[in-house]
């Protein structure tokens, strides 16, 4: 099927381009973000500016990161955004979010209708800059949103849930059907709000161990943890920590995974 032109632009599949055109959804996203003058607003993947233009009407300055050179150039010459917008034409996965925040001496408010092919790596990359982030609002594939928001015992609860809930509290904002976009994606979407949890900064070793232990546990999610994690931590130690060795990966809470990672990080298993 021929790809439909949208505002004179042919959507590029390799950049995950699905442009929002439903004004009700766009307004709901902007109401949830509630941008204020003076805040450091940063959009990832502004595309043809469906969200950007409306935000530009509310505040004096905003920054965007857009990988597509043609779209970045269109935004640069956009009449209502002129003088307000700073454009980084580059890959968001390589953007120095911490450096940018430090330079501006402000926390970042990040939002975007993310290209689905990079949403999970981008979220993990943003977690590595979490100390400079005030909040985030992302349009995600429904399946990814369900995994982020899942609690223990739910079939969607997995490594992504544990890692994300360690860094952030997350809230669903609005479900979005395929026909809100041009071209429509094959899947449903959901906007999710991320509020970083300001805890004591953990060591890189702890983060590594949290990744490690959740990967090991969920790679064998139907196994009891005494088997899947047995080579990392003994049943005796699990019992001492009040964690039953009979639990399966999907029944272990985020707090318990953090306890386990702490033990590993301290080499106390
Ligand atoms: N925000 C627009 C909207 O809602 O209509 C466009 C959303 S579209 C799903 C994703 C946008 O992200 C596109 O403009 C695409 O070019 C851009 N993009 C894709 N990969 C990117 C990357 N690695 N870094 C920055 N922008 C990217």
From TrEMBL:
This entry's Gene Ontology molecular function terms read: 16S rRNA (adenine(1518)-N(6)/adenine(1519)-N(6))-dimethyltransferase activity; RNA binding
Which CDD domains does UniProt cross-reference here? AdoMet_MTases (cd02440)
Might you report a single GO cellular component term? Answer: cytosol
Give the record's keywords alphabetically.
Answer: Cytoplasm, Methyltransferase, RNA-binding, rRNA processing, S-adenosyl-L-methionine, Transferase
Listed binding positions for S-adenosyl-L-methionine are 18, 20, 45, 66, 91, 113
Q: Which domain of life is it from?
A: Bacteria
UniProt-listed Enzyme Commission number(s): 2.1.1.182
Q: Which reaction does it catalyse?
A: adenosine(1518)/adenosine(1519) in 16S rRNA + 4 S-adenosyl-L-methionine = N(6)-dimethyladenosine(1518)/N(6)-dimethyladenosine(1519) in 16S rRNA + 4 S-adenosyl-L-homocysteine + 4 H(+)
Q: What class of enzyme is it?
A: transferase
List localization entries. Answer: Cytoplasm
Predominant location: cytoplasm
InterPro entries, per database record: KsgA/Erm, rRNA_Ade_diMease-like_C, rRNA_Ade_Mease_Trfase_CS, rRNA_Ade_methylase_Trfase_N, rRNA_adenine_dimethylase, SAM-dependent_MTases_sf
Domain Ribosomal RNA adenine methylase transferase N-terminal: start-end pairs: 25-198
Q: Which family does it belong to?
A: Belongs to the class I-like SAM-binding methyltransferase superfamily. rRNA adenine N(6)-methyltransferase family. RsmA subfamily.
Explain the purpose of this protein. Answer: Specifically dimethylates two adjacent adenosines (A1518 and A1519) in the loop of a conserved hairpin near the 3'-end of 16S rRNA in the 30S particle. May play a critical role in biogenesis of 30S subunits.
Q: What's the name of the protein?
A: Ribosomal RNA small subunit methyltransferase A
Q: Which gene encodes it?
A: rsmA
């Amino acid at each position: 099927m021929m790809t439909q032109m949208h505002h004179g632009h042919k959507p590029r599949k390799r950049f995950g381009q699905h442009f929002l055109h439903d004004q009700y959804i766009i307004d709901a996203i902007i109401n949830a973000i509630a941008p204020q003058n003076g805040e450091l607003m940063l959009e990832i993947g502004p595309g043809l500016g469906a969200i950007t233009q409306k935000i530009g009407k509310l505040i004096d300055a905003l920054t965007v990161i857009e990988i597509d050179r043609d779209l970045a150039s269109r935004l640069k010459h956009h009449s209502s955004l002129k003088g307000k917008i700073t454009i980084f034409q580059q890959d968001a996965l390589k953007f120095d979010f911490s450096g940018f925040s430090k330079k501006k001496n402000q926390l970042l408010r990040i939002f975007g209708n993310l290209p689905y092919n990079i949403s999970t790596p981008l979220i993990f990359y943003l977690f590595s800059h979490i100390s400079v982030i005030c909040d985030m609002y992302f349009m995600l594939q429904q399946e990814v949103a369900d995994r982020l928001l899942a609690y223990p015992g739910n079939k969607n609860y997995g490594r992504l849930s544990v890692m994300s809930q360690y860094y952030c509290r997350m809230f669903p904002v609005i479900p979005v059907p395929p026909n809100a976009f041009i071209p429509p994606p094959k899947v449903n979407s959901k906007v999710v709000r991320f509020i970083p949890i300001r805890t004591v900064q953990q060591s890189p070793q702890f983060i590594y161990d949290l990744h490690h232990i959740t990967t090991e546990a969920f790679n064998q999610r139907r196994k009891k943890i005494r088997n899947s994690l047995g080579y990392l931590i003994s049943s005796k130690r699990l019992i001492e920590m009040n964690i039953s060795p009979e639990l399966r990966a999907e029944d272990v809470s985020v707090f318990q995974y953090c306890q386990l990672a702490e033990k590993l990080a301290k080499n106390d298993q």
